[in-house]
Write a structure and sequence with these properties.
By secondary structure, the protein is α+β, with helices and mostly antiparallel strands. Helices cover 36% and strands 20% of the residues. It is built from 20 helices and 24 strands. It binds adenosine-5'-diphosphate (ADP). The site of adenosine-5'-diphosphate has 17 residues, from helix 2 and helix 3.
Length: 620
């Protein structure tokens, strides 16, 4: 490509994390290492899409009329594979910033995955991490990139590295626009210089690239827009293959939608829901996966406004004829056409989920397990679809085993005859929820409680005030409409009860909002519940995580007056000379309740007092 090299060759060191990544890539064992080719072809296809897009409005580029394609040449004698595209090419800055450095947060995840793996690593997962270009070091011991950018004033550049610690950049006399990647294959990777093998790999992973791929001059892929075909023309196999191509996933999808609509807006769409939540789904830089095309021309691969945020796990393609020809990213951001498409797509996705929930509960449970948390978060944002979404959210429940789910509708159908509210408990885990003393009344009375154990629940639950005229209530609130427990034998008299409650109030002072007799406790002596102003403990915890100065409101301490400890305290109250034992026990009961809901801040004092109490208890 470059007949004469300019003498100036600059050498650059890779950054430390890049060195580490390359070292791991070069020295790990893989299955499916052929994936490197998919990554290179996909980079070329991106580069071709970029130039095609630019030329919609600007034809003042190098080689404006050259065919847009990818060429692969093999040489068994020199053990090389060469891949050339007529894409947008790279500037010096691109080479240094994009090829020379670790870009995405996913790369570090990949490093960890490689480090923690004992056996061979499945290279198919590379698609999920965005290490792209560097995956070629799985099979090559030296990589050369020759490139020239589409800008008319660009220069030819050559980037070269053996992946061990540094790379070089030099100027070349390259005349044509585009990029050529030359892999010098490792000695034992000669298979990737074999025609049949490369053809097989292209068929398997890159069949749906938007541009022709030529191998030794022969076109090998089917440049074929599946979404343009009618449903009956598309085979299940092709759908799976296309899904894998577009998502980088190596499993089949959980399900798909194939749409062709004509009306106020016309568009075609092929959308998939993955079987597993993709990596980084909750991270800020998560890449959305619906590709937008305008009359078969690729516009953008991370169209955010085609779906609501809660559906960001959806992968696929939307192709419409209704966008202006000179679409830009700005146009796509507030296009009424896309807003309309989004509305239709959202409805269709909800319809599909509804269908699964009715006809295929295993599939729907799987959806809930993988995406339920994100889906639920939509309840507080997507108000247009809230009613439909309320029917589709699922929760764990005291009436079900761990890992099983119920809908609000199922809950309401099972409610006790006099039960008015839907009850839920917020907790960090199912186990913590089940141990919450505030649940004792509900267990004893056979009332189902929804167990909300995901972080978003603390925000979601209060945002659903009612479902079918039933209030949603946290079992931690103080104003629950509970049946008064029947007066048990040995229960204290009214006077005794008032006396001990007063003593609690005196000892605890302004640590609590109030002290009350409890109707909800069966086995525990005391519990803390939300007072007039406060919020659930779990909600408070979330607030504290976001704002370290956040102070929760005071709680109400509820006392189980029939608990043996309380009965003992009533008896002791009159005989205890200086009152110190009763007071210590009261503090201990209060702090014990704090401890069990996870809010005790001074465990040292608690333990010290407990030791003193044990000394007294064991000394007599
Ligand atoms: P990713 O493709 O996920 O961005 P890569 O490491 O594969 O990560 O590529 C890094 C960047 O290098 C690309 O985003 C692109 O800017 C540039 N690049 C790679 N290959 C090419 C190519 N054939 N033509 C133009 N640019 C390329």
């Amino acid at each position: 490509m470059s007949e004469k090299q300019t003498p100036k060759t600059e050498t650059f060191e890779f950054k430390a994390e890049m060195k580490q990544l390359l070292h791991l890539i070069i020295h790990s064992l893989y299955t499916h290492e052929e994936i490197f080719l998919r990554e290179l072809i996909s980079n070329s296809s991106d580069a071709l899409n970029k130039i095609r897009f630019r030329m919609l409005t600007d034809r003042d580029v190098l080689d404006a009329d050259v065919e847009q394609k990818i060429d692969i040449l093999l040489n068994k004698d020199s053990n090389t594979l060469t891949l050339t595209d007529t894409g947008v090419g790279m500037t010096r800055d691109d080479l240094m910033k994009r090829i020379g450095t670790v870009a995405s947060s996913g790369t570090l995840d990949f490093v960890n995955e490689l480090k923690n793996n004992d056996g061979p690593v499945d290279a198919q997962m590379i698609g999920q991490f965005g290490v792209g270009f560097y995956s070629a070091f799985m099979v090559a011991d030296e990589i050369t990139v020759d490139t020239r950018h589409a800008n008319a004033d660009s220069v030819g550049l050559r980037w070269k590295s053996d992946g061990s610690g540094s790379y070089t950049i030099e100027e070349t006399k390259q005349a044509e626009r585009g990029t050529t990647i030359t892999l010098h294959l490792k000695e034992d990777k000669g298979e990737f210089a074999e025609d049949w093998r490369i053809k097989q790999i292209i068929k398997k992973y890159s069949n749906f690239v938007d541009f022709p791929v030529h191998l030794e001059g022969e076109e090998v892929n089917t440049v074929d827009a599946l979404w343009q075909k009618s449903k009956s023309e598309v085979k299940e196999e092709e759908l799976n293959e296309f899904y894998k191509f577009i998502s980088g996933d190596f499993d089949d999808s959980m399900g798909h939608l194939h749409l062709s609509l004509e009306g106020k807006v016309s568009f075609k769409a092929l959308l998939f829901i993955p079987k597993k939540a993709p990596k980084g789904l909750y991270q800020e830089d998560f890449k959305y996966g619906v590709h937008l095309y305008s009359s078969n021309v690729f516009i953008q691969d991370d169209a955010r406004n085609l779906l609501p945020d809660w559906a960001r796990f959806v992968k696929g393609v939307v192709d419409t004829e209704d966008l202006p020809l000179n679409v830009s990213r700005e146009v796509t951001q507030n296009s009424p056409v896309l807003a309309k498409i989004r509305q239709i797509l959202t409805g269709k996705i909800l319809g599909m989920l509804k269908e699964w929930s009715v006809e295929d509960s295993d599939r729907y449970d799987n959806f809930t397990r993988e995406f339920g948390m994100l889906f639920k978060s939509g309840l507080s944002m997507d108000f247009d679809n809230r009613d439909q979404m309320l029917e589709l959210v699922r929760f764990e429940s005291s009436a079900k085993e761990a890992g099983e789910y119920v809908s609000l509708e199922q809950y309401v159908d099972r409610m006790q005859p006099e039960q008015k509210a839907i009850y839920y408990v917020l907790a960090e885990s199912r186990q913590a929820a089940e141990m919450n003393p505030n649940l004792e009344y509900f267990k004893a009375n056979d009332i189902e409680v929804l167990l909300m154990t995901e972080p978003v629940d603390a925000f979601i639950a209060p945002s659903i005030p009612t479902y079918k005229d039933h209030d949603l209530k946290s079992v931690e609130t103080s104003d629950l409409d509970l049946k008064k427990s029947k007066k048990k034998k040995g229960a204290p008299t009214k006077k005794e009860s008032e006396g001990i409650l007063d003593r609690f109030k005196k000892v605890l002072g302004d640590k609590v909002e109030d002290v009350k007799a409890s109707d909800r406790l069966v086995d525990s002596a005391a519990t803390l519940v939300v007072g007039k102003e406060g919020m659930d403990t779990q909600m408070e915890r979330m607030m504290k995580m976001m704002d370290e100065n956040f102070e929760g409101a005071k709680k109400v301490l509820e006392i189980n007056l029939t608990h043996p400890l309380v009965i003992n305290l009533i008896a002791l109250r009159d005989n205890d000379e200086d009152g110190s034992l009763v007071d210590s026990a009261i503090l201990q009961v209060y702090e014990g309740a704090l401890l069990s809901d996870g809010s005790l801040t001074s465990p040292q004092e608690f333990v010290k007092r407990m030791t003193e109490l044990m000394v007294q208890a064991t000394g007599k």
